[in-house]
# Entry
Amino acid sequence: MYSFYTSRTLYLKKIGLHYDDSNLKELHHIINWLVIHKSTQLKGIASDKYLACKYVKMKLGINLCEQRIAVYNNVEEINFEEIIKLGNVILKVSNGCGDNTFIFKHEKKDIKTIKKKVMKSFSRDFGLVVPDFFHSYSKKTIILEKMFYPLTDLYEFKFVIVNRDIKMIYIRATINKKIHFYYYDSNFKYLVGSKHYSFDISIFDKKILEQLKEYAYQLSEDFPNFVRVDLYLFHNKIYLSELTFDPQDGRPFMRDSEIIRKAGANWKRID
# Structure
């Protein structure tokens, strides 16, 4: 089996990315280079969904994780009967990707099925496919959180910050039971080339939008090369989603190459 370093090296070789920092033009190339060469303990802490709450509270002086209920070191610690009684909660892996188990109050749930899903998520190791070196600095845990329900009232703002400059903001929204993404520049102006034109951003108060931007910018301070700051907005209140350093495992997350090039244009490594 390949080591963590070897497997991402093979991945980068496959997409033709060289390892010096002088030829990086597109955002996903920058992300991959940074993951290999600039992984740090602080990134391990900030990218961990459990530890990130403490980090954000230290940086902003406020708690953006009021939805947090409990944290577990392993599956055996979880009382699934009590969790099912709570309803409208989520079990998520602290350093996983999409490893979320949703438990809705209105749905009947089988404990064995839920436990099996959580165990599968907890045992998965993304590092063996496309390694995230910074995750070696954090311990994997399972987090229990209140669900933002209904999901139609929840919006997730993802701030793509390169060299401490907000290059792109995309909003994740659930409409007609489907997830949609809407792409904007740093001033919340629609980016030509992104899909879905019908979303009305004026539903958000301008002060809330500016507060979201300010939080994102403050949280990029310790990561001047690149970070994506994800914040939830639910009933006009801001919560932390996560901080990530390898969106889409370093693969292009937009089809529009022009926008990807602009996001990575004039990148300079900041040590």
